[in-house]
Amino acid sequence: MLDAVIVGAGFAGMYMLHRLRGLGLTARVFEAGTGVGGTWYWNRYPGARCDVESMDYSYSFSEELQQEWRWTERYSAQPEILRYANHVADRFDLRRDIQFGTRVTAAIWDERAGTWTVGTDRGDSVPARFCIMATGCLSDAQVPAFPGRDSFAGRSFHTGRWPHEPVDFTGRRVAVIGTGSSAIQSIPLIARQAAHVFVFQRTPNYSMPAHNAPLDPEYERSVKGRYAEFRRQARESRVGFVTERSGDSAMTVPDEAREREYETRWNRGGLGFSAAYTDLLTSREANDTAARFFREKIRAIVRDPAVADLLCPKDYPLGTKRLCVDTDYYATFNRDSVTLIDVRKDPIEAITPTGVRVAGVEYAVDDIVFATGFDAMTGALLDIDIRGRADRRLAVEWTGGPRTYLGLAIAGFPNLFAITGPGSPSVLSNMIVSIEQHVDWIADCMAYLRAHRLATIEATSAAQEAWVQHVNEVGHTTLYPLAPSWYMGANIPGKPRVFMPYIGGVGLYRQKCDEVAAKGYEGFALGA
Ligand SMILES: Cc1cc2nc3c(=O)[nH]c(=O)nc-3n(C[C@H](O)[C@H](O)[C@H](O)COP(=O)(O)OP(=O)(O)OC[C@H]3O[C@@H](n4cnc5c(N)ncnc54)[C@H](O)[C@@H]3O)c2cc1C
After folding, report:
1. 463 CB within 6 A, ligand 1
2. What is the pLDDT of residues 431-443, one digit of tens each?
């Protein structure tokens, strides 16, 4: 019998396998795709790129790996990250325990045997002592149920399920539906090829310039010379990478100083903007100063005032939907060949065989790109029929929204772990840092159980309820719940509106998890 089944071979599943092997435990990974890399295997759309800097967005568990691998750009593009994932799989000989092209459909706890039975779409039925969900927070691609969605006769793509061959848009009329991060990255590149791009926008996003560039060799040398310390700081930081964080309130500094600070951060580019002042994510008034700055930037870049106005976010605070990072996004709307269509006022009526219809107007296109995102954080878990003690179904347990202990474990589901599950910092962080933390915690926990001859570990309901309450409380001290975001489940009709990630900060959260372990797994019931 296997010690563990791991579901998913993205960065989480790969490292989990490596750690378990290091403990001498047996594991099999099931992966729906035909290769490793998860997000970076599926999201091959033009412009797909990391918005955390390359020297930060990489594994830290092997000094040799982090020294030998060379990133070429400040922000890595998808093909390079996928090469990196493949390099890791080869270097640590991971593939022999990964079954590709296999989707896990069920995980059922067998009370008598004290094991999980994991079923797949290929007919596998595999017993294992532990089941570890490395299924990804942003892996369950969604297309809204537009009337006529399947009637379109041209080519259609989802950014999160992009073909493996390059897609040529030369001379074509293309609809891009959605204006989240994937759209913001891909629209400038699609517009360079296409005859015309129609962008269907429901909610405008705040996007920072990336100022991407080849990686400065001097910077690379300096980080590699102190990588251990660089990683330590990242682990103890709020978001999993170190960014210059001011201790001031935006409301206590003079206006000119504040504008200068915003300008400096805009010119630096990337995600560090929200760290400009301590209260940007807690005070609406403070946030308004930053949001105003953004709107002025958009109006300065986009020549047509009506288009600029439509691109300006106005009804939710900056940073409460994931800040985007772009190259030439706003300037792309200065092209005559790009048209922005507001589908907030008049939602998409229908997809027709030849295009997209809004307010009685049909936009005829050859191709549709759905940049419509994911059923975030819970979608991939709930796609699996997961049943714990007494046949309790996860889908039923989570009817009112996800409930976990530490985002790692679920009461009633012994020996089941979720890597970067809801209730952990996950999507609010540099995710590789959060992944490594969870994997290490789970591996250490399994080693502890073995050393103490314990067979099961299970979150108690009391600890879970206290954690859920804490996650909620902390979330509601911020402005985050004000935005109808995928953090809140708002992009999926009928999904409960719960702020799913834990905003307490990566460093504090790690301490909390370590304390739980140090106290003999406080809040868990351990069984012989
Ligand atoms: C376009 C995009 C850009 C991103 N940019 C950043 C960024 O800049 N910085 C950052 O920190 N994070 C970013 N992320 C988040 C990214 O998902 C994580 O950084 C990281 O790659 C997640 O790794 P993972 O292994 O947890 O999940 P994933 O990479 O999503 O891997 C999960 C794997 O599980 C498989 N799987 C799921 N369900 C099943 C099943 N039932 N059976 C079998 N296999 C299954 C999937 O096929 C997938 O391969 C981005 C995400 C997207 C979509």
Report:
1. no
2. 999 999 999 999 9
